[in-house]
């Protein structure tokens, strides 16, 4: 009889414990559901706030939130908020370069690619601030997989070269792959022949010779790259090409 009573007591306790566990599970599920609803509402509110900023006047991209940029209007001369460029849409390589540089918060032509995207250009024009290179917004991880493949050669490269010796006297060999982040090494052994820099062009102070493969072409004879105190990671200081006696 005593054993039966003990068994009944244990069974009762187990049932109570089971009920308590079920109650706690329901409370946890309810709590997570509430948290999910709050997060969803916050995200929708943020998205609506970002969308509402599109078209509004701005003085810098900080006025446009995380999904937009401040775009200069050639018609009015002012600036307004516009959305970032999405994957597979047309973009400008120089806009990515502006984004990596300090202080450039108002863009020309169009906004940069959205987060986790990079403008993959065709390198049909020099990659300078004045000569905009068109491309397509692509996923950064996808690009890195291609660039880390030693057998990968970038498409649409005219005047293929491996050093300045493969180009004419007024050209240099520009790498088909541009660096991302702090990695400065040339990723592949091929590039494209492009014209040397002229007066007023943007330039890299560190690039002084056309003999090797470069990230950008140096200047023609008689010009020099005057630094402007603007540093682009990982390429170094940027400047403008001018005559020696104007430096």
UniProtKB/TrEMBL annotation:
Molecular function as annotated in GO: enzyme activator activity
According to the UniProt record, one GO cellular component term is: extracellular region
Q: What is this protein called?
A: Prokineticin domain-containing protein
* Organism from which the protein derives: Lymnaea stagnalis
What the entry lists under InterPro entries is as follows:
Colipase
Read off the PANTHER family from this record.
COLIPASE, LEUCINE-RICH COLIPASE-LIKE PROTEIN 1
Output the GO biological process annotations, alphabetical, semicolon-separated: digestion; lipid catabolic process
């Amino acid at each position: 009889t005593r054993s039966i009573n003990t068994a009944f007591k244990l069974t009762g306790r187990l049932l109570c414990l089971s009920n308590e566990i079920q109650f706690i599970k329901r409370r946890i599920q309810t709590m997570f559901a509430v948290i999910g609803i709050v997060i969803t509402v916050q995200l929708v509110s943020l998205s609506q706030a970002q969308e509402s900023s599109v078209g509004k006047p701005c003085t810098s991209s900080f006025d446009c939130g995380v999904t937009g940029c401040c775009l200069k209007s050639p018609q009015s001369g002012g600036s307004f908020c516009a959305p970032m460029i999405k994957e597979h849409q047309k973009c400008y390589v120089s806009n990515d370069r502006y984004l990596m540089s300090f202080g450039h918060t108002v863009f020309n032509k169009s906004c940069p690619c959205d987060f986790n995207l990079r403008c993959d250009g065709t390198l049909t024009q020099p990659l300078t601030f004045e000569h905009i290179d068109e491309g397509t917004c692509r996923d950064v991880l996808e690009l890195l997989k291609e660039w880390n493949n030693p057998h990968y050669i970038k498409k649409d490269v005219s005047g293929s070269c491996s050093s300045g010796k493969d180009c004419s006297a007024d050209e240099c060999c520009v790498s088909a792959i541009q660096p991302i982040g702090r990695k400065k090494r040339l990723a592949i052994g091929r590039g494209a022949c492009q014209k040397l820099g002229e007066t007023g062009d943007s330039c890299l102070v560190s690039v002084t010779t056309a003999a090797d493969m470069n990230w950008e072409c140096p200047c023609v004879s008689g010009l020099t790259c005057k630094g402007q105190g603007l540093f682009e990671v990982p390429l170094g200081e940027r400047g403008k090409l001018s005559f020696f006696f104007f430096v």
